[in-house]
Design a protein that fits this description.
single chain; alpha+beta; 6-stranded antiparallel β-sheet; two-stranded antiparallel sheet
Length: about 120
């Protein structure tokens, strides 16, 4: 089985593979940590009708899918906002952080619960 990690940053798309779920989450974490510290910073965008603050913009999106290619059992990821904050998500919804839980811990918790039995 193979897990896929897709990292989108503007027009750049990076597609990676990992053999296990743990490796895939590690790759996702590595890419989003570096983006949050460097590439993820953006300025506010003023369209005269509406102003988009850096926290409203998604600068980098990392997506985890697997283990099957068609109709994967897991589809989740991490958004790096324009102000450098990290937002884990699953499906179409953001993941709610539990008490004293970081964004990567929340992502691991949700993905591990949805992983199919091997």
């Amino acid at each position: 089985m193979s897990w896929r990690v897709t990292v989108r940053s503007g027009p750049r798309v990076e597609k990676l593979r990992a053999a296990t779920l743990a490796q895939a989450i590690d790759v996702l974490e590595d890419r989003t940590r570096s983006a949050a510290s460097a590439d993820g910073r953006r300025a506010a965008v003023d369209l005269h009708v509406r102003r988009y603050e850096p926290g409203d913009q998604v600068a980098v999106r990392a997506e985890l899918r697997g283990p099957r290619r068609w109709r994967p059992a897991v589809r989740a990821g991490m958004d790096v906002r324009g102000d450098g904050t990290l937002v884990p998500w699953s499906g179409r919804d953001p993941i709610v952080l539990e008490d004293r839980e970081g964004p990567y811990d929340a992502l691991r918790r949700v993905v591990s619960a949805r992983r199919p039995a091997s």
